[in-house]
Design brief:
single chain, 309 residues, mainly beta, OB fold (Dihydrolipoamide Acetyltransferase, E2P), 5-stranded mixed barrel, 17 strands, 38% strand, structural constituent of ribosome, Small subunit ribosomal protein S1
Length: 309
């Protein structure tokens, strides 16, 4: 039995997955082996069963097998409806002949999610760095698929050190990211963070030098100055300037980088309205686990850190 516990959509182009969907014999073999497959849900019928394009035939995921919690009433039906025209993972449980004399594969997504929680998610530890896919964005945070459609939330204040007004300032739906596990409860619910992956103050400050003029984004405007973001984990304070609004693009002159106070002093050269695509900078951490992260430099007057226990 395979154990592929990645966000939904990662398995679709896998050669073994494609081969299994190419023939009835392939699906029957996958059924016998208990393999996890993926295909696109094309219809949610009036009874909230999902109809899946299994290549050679159609598959049906009965309503209560569409997701963990549907049968118990703890998961809303929007979790089913929102899967239409998107990949879903499943295990083939049996084959039935319908009233139209066609053969249908009966599928279970819930069984795959349950296995994912029991053998993958429940074995995660604080500090583990995992793959995730952004599913939707809310003002309070970013929802991600951490494996087989199992959802988790990255709170807005855990996305980056530099403050943002909405997760859409950082991510887009469908984007593949990494996240850090903060905790896992007995129900398989994960608490996640993300800001640690974008590096410390020193790592980000090393990308810039005094005397340079660089690109930035206005994050907030205060009476005493304008906060301009240079990277997701580094922002500086520019002198007050009229007509500046949060969300505007800027070009800023770097006056100084003050390590012991974690300050970047800036002068706004220009500010303007523009919509640029959200592109994620590279992560500073490429390992699969982190036990401790300290954003602030040694000897700094302020301590910002995360300890994963």
């Amino acid at each position: 039995m395979n154990a592929y516990f990645k966000p939904e959509g990662w398995l679709c182009d896998n050669p073994e997955n494609i081969a299994a969907l190419s023939s009835l014999a392939g699906l029957q073999e996958a059924c016998a082996q208990g393999r996890i497959l993926e295909a696109r849900a094309i219809i949610c019928d009036s009874a909230h069963n999902l109809i899946v394009d299994c290549g050679c035939i159609r598959g049906i995921i009965p309503k209560n097998e569409c997701a963990i919690g549907i049968e118990e009433g703890t998961t809303r039906e929007i979790a089913i409806i929102s899967r239409v025209n998107k990949p879903v993972c499943f295990r083939v449980t049996e084959f039935r002949r319908g009233s139209d004399n066609n053969t249908y594969a009966i599928l279970s997504r819930r069984a795959v999610q349950q296995q994912c929680i029991e053998t993958y998610i429940n074995n995660l530890a604080p500090g583990d760095i995992i793959d995730a896919r952004v599913t939707h964005l809310e003002p309070f945070g970013c929802f991600v698929d951490v494996g087989c459609g199992v959802a988790s939330l990255i709170p807005i204040d855990a996305i980056s050190v530099s403050r943002i007004s909405h997760p859409g300032d950082r991510f887009r739906t469908g984007q593949d990211i990494r996240a850090v596990v903060k905790s896992v409860d007995s129900y398989g619910r994960i608490s996640l963070s993300h800001k640690e992956l974008w590096g410390t103050w020193e790592e980000n400050a090393a990308l810039f030098h005094s005397g340079e003029t660089v690109a930035g984004v206005v994050r907030s405007v205060e009476e005493y100055g304008v906060f301009v973001e240079l990277t997701p984990n580094l922002a500086g304070l520019a002198e007050p300037r009229e007509g500046v609004r949060p969300g505007q693009q800027t070009s800023v002159y770097i006056k100084s980088l003050i390590r012991d106070k974690m300050k970047v002093k800036l002068i706004i050269v220009d500010n303007f309205d523009a919509q640029y695509a959200v592109t994620a900078p590279p992560y500073f951490i490429e390992d699969n686990h982190i036990s401790h992260w300290k954003y602030s430099p040694d000897g700094c007057c302020k301590l910002i850190e995360t300890v994963f226990e």
